[in-house]
Amino acid sequence: MTQGSVVPTLLSHLPVTILTGALGSGKTTVLSHLLRQPELSRTAVIINEFGDIGLDHLLVAHSDENVVLLESGCVCCTLRSDLAEALGDLDSRQARGDLPPFDRIVVETTGLADPAPIAHTLLTDVAVSSRFRLQRIITTVDAVHATRELATREESRRQTALADVLLMTKADLVSSTQMTEATSRVRELNAGAPILEARHGAVEPKILDGGYHDLRAAAAPLQSWLQTDALALRTHNEAHHVHHTESHRGVGIQSFALVREEPVHLPAVLQFLEELARDHGDELLRIKGVLHCEGSARPIVVHGIQHLLHPPLQLPAWPSERRRTEIVFITDGLSRVDIESRFQQSIDQRQDR
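Structure (tokenized):
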């Protein structure tokens, strides 16, 4: 990549949003509300009903029949074992004129799903990534039962940890104290994602906008993403609430940030991240951050999910006056101490040369 370059968004790529969350957390209610909004009339929907009641597609359609074309102009089909085939089928049917035009897709997962394999398919499958791009992962969290769910259900913890946006549902059913407790528990697993509240499933359509996984996007959304993360992490860290889970499974899921005030050597940091993803991809849920690099007045954005590390992207300017390296890690079973040690070794090796 040429220094200072920003690769433009490929407009032909359809954005795909993953909507995930525990059973009963309100995913279908939220989706049904969104699809009634005029701004989202050109939206296709893939629903995974396995493990659910099996009527979600009817609830979203607001129809008495299991039809493919919804009254809102949206498309609904069942997500089977092959997401790539489902996406390709939607695209082909639209191209043939069998379906009304759509310019975005929402994948609603079952409440038992780990969103990582779905995200991985969207990011790494050649046929899929040539036509579709992962926009963001939205996780619904039941504010009433969040504390219990996140303490007892592994899939809920992973759904929360992988989220780009966390949507606290049933906010109308809890007190401010209960909401604070639920939010605190969520923050232990994901320090950087914005947290929104939904009452009766109502949420603004703009929740589907903004790219968190496609670093070919324009600089403005990325700057907003970085500002959100930096503020959340700074508040989170300074309040000493970064979670270091020492559960019955060992280290467990944790969210933390490596921070360096002095400029870092970009090749050394990239080698560190690539080796970490290679050696511990299954345990490395997310990486995202901004680098203050030697010899560069502009910030470098890095982002990865499990084994996949995206090419770095240089932004035209810093989103704030403060310039420092901040890399957010969300891990499952990886020790922060070990990652800190490997990161420091990469810096020391550079200084020894």
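The first helix runs from residue 27 to 35. The mean pLDDT is 76.
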